[in-house]
Amino acid sequence: MGGVCKMGQKYKSGGKLVENSAVYWLCCMGCLSLSALLAPPTEATEEVSLDSPEREPILSDGPSPAITPVTPTALIAPRAEPNVIMVSGMFEQSLDELEEEAAGDSFDIQISVSDPEKVGDGMNAYMAYKVTTKTSLTVFSRNDFSVKRRFSDFLGLHSKLASKYMHIGYIVPPAPEKSIVGMTKVKVGKEDLSSTEFVEKRRSALERYLMRTVKHPVLLQDPDVLQFLESSELPRAVSTQALSGAGILRMVNRAADAVNRMTIKMNEADVWFEEKQQQFENLDQQLRKLHGSVEALVCHRKELSVNTASFARSAAMLGNSEDHTALSRALSQLAEVEEKIDQLHQEQAYADFYLFSELLGDYVRLITAVKAVFENRMKTWSKWQDAQLMLQKKREAESKLQFTNKPDKLQQAKDEIKEWEAKVQQGERDFEQISKTIRKEVGRFEKQRVNDFKVAIIKYLESLVQTQQQVWRESDWAAL
Amino acid sequence: MMQEGLDDGPDFLSEEDRGPRAVNVDLQTDATLQVDISDALSERDKVKFTVHTKSTLPSFKQNEFSVVRQHEEFIWLHDSFVENDDYAGYIIPPAPPRPDFDASREKLQKLGEGEGSMTKEEFTKMKQELEAEYLAIFKKTVAMHEVFLCRVAAHPVLRKDLNFHVFLEYNQDLSVRGKNKKEKLEDFFKNVVKSADGVLVAGVKDVDDFFEHEKTFLLEYHNRVKDASAKSDKMIRSHKSCADDVNRIASTLYTLGTQDSTDLCRFFLKVSELFEKTRKIEARVAADEDLKLADLLKYYLRESQAAKDLLYRRGRALVDYENANKALDKARAKNKDVLQAETSQQLCCQKFEKISESAKQELIDFKTRRVAAFRKNLVELAELELKHAKGNLQLLQSCLGVLKGDT
């Protein structure tokens, strides 16, 4: 909400207003700089800014070249800045409205990941995937477009989103996991069944990841996401490499987090959070178990189909040697045919269960993200508490100084107190904000989960019905 | 039914509990001699079979009587047939395999040890499954022993064997002890010698076309049956492990369902129920396959081995005959011990011809039996699979209907 333009002047009431679905633009006729509003401006366009005058303009990268884009300074900055928190706080409020509007918009966006292509040779080779977006949302410039991306691009997108949104309570969908073994096989060029399976698994995982990300109304509006989907060239995300400096930093951070987790004891005032956390713990446990069992089943079904195939061959041979009686031979052939059908049946069941197991795997990872968000809330709380303690200390220091006669030190102390009071207030606000966000996110997550599982289960059962019908038909024929 | 702790105390398996038995042979129900196993007891490490005979033959003291026999006594009977030269020309019905409950017992023990780590429902479920498995193995071994006896009883010559009558009638312990180490070693060496000899004998080209053809056929058939039997075993094992997995999934879904507070809980519970039922059906399918297909193949594996043995004996007799001929010629040439050589040649000739004659008939019978058995079992298997597929389909459709209706 630009209160002031580049030149330091307030946006005049005569400023041009450009509507762009959920984002409104205000243009300063004087310097032609832009400010974006996420809510329609009020009547008095003079006083459009909110409480604090130091709001910095936040924007999405303007797709239209006619307007000079103002770079979003605040948003990309790392978390510790109090500035950002303020910005995102304000961002928050208008995002609520944004979400409502997005819900009003027909949610029409389809992303597909296809055509995996091997680019390059040897150990530097990688798979490039085509990402095609079909949409009628106005936030995009075209209706149907595609770009080429590689796996590390996806990881880069995820890490950017995570650093922007996780600490304020949004559940960012996790990216598919790296797999050194799988990729090495592909790089080396082994054109066998397991590497094609691996590529297929990865392709579908990437597709699901993107769909989940854009289903989130806040993430959909994020400039990084839009850039990822639209722009033909993307800067290489180097920090996703396992052994890079950034990778090591990540590991250190993770270790620090683990220690923190154990030391922060939070006074949970809100029963809702406690319940939910417990629920998610249980869910996590059960889903992991289920995932394990489903994977085992997939494995065994594969085995079964292999064994059935080999049995069918053996039965055929047996039938061949039995040419004493034509009847005998017919019977053996029959046995063989039936086995072949059985094998098909198994393969299909396996393919569908594989979908189910992938879904479960996704959810296990998602729940990890949810747990991380809960932890962030705890961290915010602890920061708030720390700020309170500091304030306390400063107040004590000040009262001590009252009795000594050092006016400038006293002033300094008073200033510090003011500073810390502000921080405490901010901490409290942050905590409440993150709590609110989490509540909403969890609600959304649950809805998604319910939907996803229902759809998956129904699909799986339907496919089972189909295969059973086939088996029935074949057995019928066999019995004749 | 089964009591707690299968390892202690006798368990009863009453007549009613036995389902359809895998009868792999086509038997003429002859009123003059009917044998069956009416009851069986499973004790710690042995199984006691109650052999029940109904007969109108005068050689038996009563018309209907029962005795209790153990596995070793069956083996004794079988071996006595094999060692009897008079029966060299017949396919000796293959001996039933030893009852093997070790695997089951091990699993039960492991289950008992792991009791602490599972929930109560899981434990009871697994226990039930293990008991069902034990029961299935039990039924199978009973069936195989019975088939052996029935084959002997149906054979026109073997049924008159004295040892057989003793086996059926003598209601005290036959005090047949299992072979001790020394005897087992002897057996092993005998087998080695026999197989070496078998190779030699097989090399001799037979004059008779019929037998030559049979020889090649049986060899090939035997190998293929062995292969098919092994593969079918593997297949059935995979099937069983799939069913086990579905079981575990069902119980996890159930826990998920009870924990979940959203709409999904009903879903999960229903699906868990569904999986339970489909698992039972899948397990049944696997068991049927096992019974109809795997057992069939295994039995014919053993029978074809017995047929091969017959051919071997005949081949041996042929070689002996030819050797006797050569000896006779030599004796005649030297004009020494001619009479002796002549008598031995006569004996060999007789033996050979006797074997050849009966062997021909036996092999033809074998073929008829085999064809009939395969036909019967495969048809039954197809029908059962049909039934199960239908059942499965119904379950799935009804569950789907309920779930869809709720969304």
Automatic annotation (TrEMBL), chain A:
<feature type="coiled-coil region">
    <location>
        <begin position="410"/>
        <end position="437"/>
    </location>
</feature>
<dbReference type="GO" id="GO:0030027">
    <property type="term" value="C:lamellipodium"/>
</dbReference>
<dbReference type="InterPro" id="IPR015404">
    <property type="entry name" value="Vps5_C"/>
</dbReference>
<dbReference type="GO" id="GO:0031901">
    <property type="term" value="C:early endosome membrane"/>
</dbReference>
<dbReference type="Pfam" id="PF00787">
    <property type="entry name" value="PX"/>
</dbReference>
<dbReference type="Pfam" id="PF09325">
    <property type="entry name" value="Vps5"/>
</dbReference>
<dbReference type="GO" id="GO:0035091">
    <property type="term" value="F:phosphatidylinositol binding"/>
</dbReference>
<keyword id="KW-0597">Phosphoprotein</keyword>
<keyword id="KW-0472">Membrane</keyword>
<dbReference type="GO" id="GO:0030904">
    <property type="term" value="C:retromer complex"/>
</dbReference>
<keyword id="KW-0966">Cell projection</keyword>
<keyword id="KW-0967">Endosome</keyword>
<dbReference type="GO" id="GO:0005829">
    <property type="term" value="C:cytosol"/>
</dbReference>
<dbReference type="InterPro" id="IPR037918">
    <property type="entry name" value="SNX2_PX"/>
</dbReference>
<dbReference type="GO" id="GO:0015031">
    <property type="term" value="P:protein transport"/>
</dbReference>
<feature type="domain" description="PX">
    <location>
        <begin position="107"/>
        <end position="236"/>
    </location>
</feature>
<feature type="region of interest" description="Disordered">
    <location>
        <begin position="45"/>
        <end position="69"/>
    </location>
</feature>
<dbReference type="InterPro" id="IPR027267">
    <property type="entry name" value="AH/BAR_dom_sf"/>
</dbReference>
<comment type="function">
    <text>Involved in several stages of intracellular trafficking. Interacts with membranes containing phosphatidylinositol 3-phosphate (PtdIns(3P)) or phosphatidylinositol 3,5-bisphosphate (PtdIns(3,5)P2). Acts in part as component of the retromer membrane-deforming SNX-BAR subcomplex. The SNX-BAR retromer mediates retrograde transport of cargo proteins from endosomes to the trans-Golgi network (TGN) and is involved in endosome-to-plasma membrane transport for cargo protein recycling.</text>
</comment>
<dbReference type="GO" id="GO:0034498">
    <property type="term" value="P:early endosome to Golgi transport"/>
</dbReference>
<dbReference type="InterPro" id="IPR036871">
    <property type="entry name" value="PX_dom_sf"/>
</dbReference>
<keyword id="KW-0653">Protein transport</keyword>
UniProtKB/TrEMBL annotation, chain B:
<keyword id="KW-0813">Transport</keyword>
<comment type="function">
    <text>Involved in several stages of intracellular trafficking.</text>
</comment>
<feature type="compositionally biased region" description="Acidic residues">
    <location>
        <begin position="1"/>
        <end position="14"/>
    </location>
</feature>
<dbReference type="InterPro" id="IPR014637">
    <property type="entry name" value="SNX5/SNX6/SNX32"/>
</dbReference>
<dbReference type="GO" id="GO:0042147">
    <property type="term" value="P:retrograde transport, endosome to Golgi"/>
</dbReference>
<keyword id="KW-0653">Protein transport</keyword>
<feature type="domain" description="PX">
    <location>
        <begin position="27"/>
        <end position="174"/>
    </location>
</feature>
<dbReference type="Pfam" id="PF00787">
    <property type="entry name" value="PX"/>
</dbReference>
<dbReference type="InterPro" id="IPR036871">
    <property type="entry name" value="PX_dom_sf"/>
</dbReference>
<protein>
    <recommendedName>
        <fullName>Sorting nexin</fullName>
    </recommendedName>
</protein>
<dbReference type="GO" id="GO:0005829">
    <property type="term" value="C:cytosol"/>
</dbReference>
<dbReference type="GO" id="GO:0035091">
    <property type="term" value="F:phosphatidylinositol binding"/>
</dbReference>
<dbReference type="InterPro" id="IPR001683">
    <property type="entry name" value="PX_dom"/>
</dbReference>
<dbReference type="GO" id="GO:0015031">
    <property type="term" value="P:protein transport"/>
</dbReference>
<dbReference type="InterPro" id="IPR015404">
    <property type="entry name" value="Vps5_C"/>
</dbReference>
<dbReference type="GO" id="GO:0005768">
    <property type="term" value="C:endosome"/>
</dbReference>
<feature type="region of interest" description="Disordered">
    <location>
        <begin position="1"/>
        <end position="21"/>
    </location>
</feature>
<dbReference type="Pfam" id="PF09325">
    <property type="entry name" value="Vps5"/>
</dbReference>
<dbReference type="InterPro" id="IPR027267">
    <property type="entry name" value="AH/BAR_dom_sf"/>
</dbReference>
<comment type="similarity">
    <text>Belongs to the sorting nexin family.</text>
</comment>
